[in-house]
Design brief:
By secondary structure, the chain is mainly α. It is built from four helices and no strands. The chain is extended and about 50 Å long.
């Protein structure tokens, strides 16, 4: 109950509420695509038919790219500004 009382004033702020909602939607999309569909596609016998080890290596590679890429992209975004980075990022994934 104490946690709910601490969150109530935060959630009254629309900016924080929107940020929490977007973060929740991100994790739902990630769980649905990267954590559920991708392994099924990678192991499909009529598709890539990867072994469990190969799927693990694929996920390891994805993690390494994220670990190495986040600090570099953070410096890049700091240099060009958030609005331009958002437009560029959404253009790349659409």
């Amino acid at each position: 109950r104490d946690a709910v009382r601490q969150w109530a004033p935060l959630m009254a702020d629309g900016r924080i509420r929107n940020t929490v909602a977007m973060n929740g939607l991100y994790w739902v999309a990630l769980a649905g695509s990267q954590m559920t569909i991708l392994p099924l596609l990678l192991t499909d016998p009529t598709g890539l038919a990867l072994s469990a080890t190969s799927v693990g290596k694929t996920y390891m590679g994805m993690s390494l790219v994220q670990v190495a890429g986040v600090p570099l992209m953070a410096k890049f975004v700091d240099r060009i500004g958030k609005p331009l980075a958002i437009v560029a990022g959404t253009s790349l994934i659409s």
